[in-house]
Design goal:
single chain, alpha/beta, six-stranded mixed sheet, 7 helices, 10 strands
Length: about 220
Amino acid sequence: MNTSVIKATSLVKTVSTKQENLTILTDINLDISEGETVAIVGTSGAGKSTLMTLLAGLDIPTSGDVELLGQTISSLSDEQRSAIRSQSIGFVFQSFLLIPSLSSIDNVTLPCLLKGQPENKQRAQQLLESVGLGERIHHAPAQLSGGEQQRVALARAFMIEPQILFADEPTGNLDQKTASKIIDLLFELNRDHGTTLVLVTHDMSLAYKCDRVITMQAGKLEC
């Protein structure tokens, strides 16, 4: 029997503007098993990234529940949710989010500091070598191409050996050839580490590499 690592039940997310209450997500029910790779697709504004932020514990729902690694998120404090993320979750974003003043290897070891652990430079170097950046470990982000920066971000995401990896449009800022290489690396790393992958993308060729594709439209999951 597969172990559930993410479970959303009757999820609703509403935000208030000066004019009205805007419902972004409506009645989302979703179960993701350990080791599964899941793509969330849909048009711009469908609610994909909002759903990811709720599943990852970056935000809490207006109503309904999210269970992340067996814990109900809405019952946890900001600090408790942050602790789960730093201990067990990796992120890859479209905009890389590297620290400009840090070298590649120091960007990769950053999750160690957030987790309150010593920097494991040996593991960081191994991860950078695995994404083809063994010769660039002391380069700052400004000295790297966009594709190289995203490789650093991938290595950083796997630094703490996360149980779950969330990737939000990880190839959105890359040209097609570079994006293809990053996709291959992402799935290779994910396979090697046995990580559960939740991927938000508009790229269907990327989505179909996953075990399951979930389509969103107007804040709802399509059956």
